[in-house]
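Q: Sequence in, structure out?
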Amino acid sequence: MKRIVLRTLLYLLLILGALIMVFPFYWMIASSFKTAAEMNLFPPRMAPSNWFNFDNYVTAWHTAPFGTYFLNSIVVCFCSVGVVMFTTILAAFAFSRLKFPGRDLLFTLLLSMMMIPFELLVITNYQTMVKLGIYDTLYALVLPFTSSIFYTYILRNFFMSIPDSLYYSAQVDGSSNWKYLWKVMVPIARPSLVTILLLNAMASWNSFMWPKLVIMHDEFRTLPYGLFTFTTESGSNNEIIMAAATMVVLPMLILFLFARKQIVRGVARGGIKG
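A: Exactly. Output:
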């Protein structure tokens, strides 16, 4: 009886936590379908009178160039994910299979850099973009994020869990390290690679502070930065702001709902050595 009571309380606590986490998303989506009059009601209504009222979306789409913002976000996300995946695979292979002096020390030093917040590197990265002449371009949104120590750590641990016998057998058969990496290790590490891809895609899509610092013109803004400028220019039209926010959040929200198990599984497997 005590176990049943404790389990019931646990489930109730989990349900309460889930409702607290989901409610802001529900309120954002529901408010995007409300009229201006419904938004000003007190007490507020939990649901719109018409769930098929897309006027706010049309107004938001034509008020700001969200089509351009959306395309910029896709380009930046695709390039960033592609480059990070390539550099992460090479770095993880080097730190897990190649033998060179100071390998473990170098990797430990790289891990220690994870304690440095990105805000401390903003000035240096900003000066680098200006000196390279790519300030206020999409290149400035990709270049500082061409590698990740955290993703390398996840993939390195997964590579180290692969038996050394496969590596030695490939060498006996005359396979090079490059061929062994792409023909053997990458297919085996597909769960971790998918996790890295999804996490990096969401991080790139939701990036706000860096685009705000290096982008000046509208044609190079991404969705989060575009939403910020839209909210400051649209005044108190909260229903239109909610519609614009939904357009920004919905792609990553759908991606997370379909890939949440894969993300948790990949991180868990990548964090275990042996």
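The longest helix spans residues 238-270.
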